[in-house]
Amino acid sequence: MKNQRLASVDALRGLSVAAMLLVNNPGDWGHVYAPLLHAAWHGFTPTDLIFPLFLFIVGVSLALSLGAKVEADAPRAPLARAVLERALRILLLGLALHLFAWWALGKPEFRLFGVLQRIGLCFALAGLVLLYCRARTQWLLLAGLLILHAALLLGGGGLDKAGSLQARIDTALLGRFAYEWDGRLAFDPEGVLSTLGALASCLLGLRAGDWLRRRQLMPLLRLGLAALVVAYLLTPWLPLNKQLWTGSFVLWTGGWACLALVGFHLLVDRRGWPALGRGFGVNAITAYAGAWVMSVALAALGWQTAIYQGWLLPSVGAALGPEAASLAFALLFVLVWAGVARLLDKRGIYIKV
Predict the structure, then answer these.
(1) How sure is the predictor about 63, in pLDDT bands with cuts at 50, 70 and 90?
(2) Which of 64, 90, 310, 347 is found 20 to 30 A from 181 (Cα to Cα)?
(3) Cβ(108)–Cβ(175) under 8 Å?
(4) Segment 84-94, tens digit of pLDDT
């Protein structure tokens, strides 16, 4: 009943964390290359794949760590307690990071939801689904979530931001504690309704991880291709939209995640290619949280402005333009944390939140 740990999964998780740090920390938000920005509303950019890929890997990791125990009919209560305790720690860490940003940057309001909060919720719910639901039920839950979420969005006021059911729910439940608040209307891309779609991404990873655990790559490959085709066919009625986390977005990003998982498994686990990103992957939440604190501290102390405007903009920016200077800052930020992550891994230090 030992946990299965695959280098390919650590690498894929780690690269998704590195990508998060890259797109979240430009030198200047006014000068960012288009592929490193999220789609403004409907549409898709490479950046839009990062967070769903991480949630997909959360599901894969749950299947690898708990799948054999479930099959061996291990007592469910201790496993469920461990899942819920870890989920709570992740959620509380997310709240603590937002509290630090609110205090250090003098933000007018505290944001309640966020990336780690969403990870914590999805980890808890997907873990319970794995522990208490058979494979067939998991597939039915995944399909039901996609159908329910689409019905709520399409029948609840449309897919524009102001008129969407998601905005109305966020306004009623979050108000000024949402990511966006204009005094009348609230909207949060990690808000209440879109969490249904995010959970579907995690459940898709759960099923993919079960196939990976059994080394059944052809079903995983077929799932990826089928998800891409279905997502493409759905887009005229249900556009790709990360902020709403639409069903087409779940399937589109999940399809690419399945193909990436197959590719990484073949290259890293079977052919022995280097597990690039492993350092980030084995300390993923720690690296994300540490980078968040560093980012807020750099901004609060004025050091980011000093580095970007005083060094990178006059040198890199003068030669290649302000977008290149902004990207250079983000790359330096990632390199610093890549060094930290590699050092922790080399010394066998793994901080589990």
Answers:
(1) very high
(2) 90
(3) no
(4) 999 999 999 99
Secondary structure (3-state) at 187 = strand
CB 179 within 8 A of CB 190: yes
Residue 38, Cβ neighbours under 10 Å: how many?
17
Return d(Cα 194, Cα 113) in angstroms, integer. 12
Name 166's Cβ contacts closer than 8 Å, sequence gap at least 6. Answer: 153, 187, 191, 192, 193, 194, 244
Six token digits for residue 151 = 């019905």
CB 163 within 8 A of CB 87: no
- Which tokens go with 293? 């604190």
For the chain, the residue count is 353
Q: For residue 338, how many other CB atoms are within 10 A of its CB? A: 19
Distance CA 350, CA 107 (A): 33
Q: Are 206 and 59 in contact (CB under 8 A)?
A: yes
Buried/exposed code over 185-211 (b: 16+ C-beta within 10 A; e: otherwise): bbbbbbbbbbbbbbbbbbbbbbbbbbb
pLDDT of residue 290: 96
Strand partners, 181: 186
- List the structure tokens of 324: 């290149």
| 10-34 tens-digit pLDDT | 999 999 999 999 999 999 999 999 9
104 burial via Cβ count (<10 Å: 0-12, 13-18, 19+): middle
DSSP 163-212: TSHHHHHHHHHTGGGSSEE-SS-EE-TTSTTHHHHHHHHHHHHHHHHHHH
Q: Please report, for the chain, the start and end positions of each structural domain, with discontinuous segments joined by +.
A: 1-37+276-353, 44-270
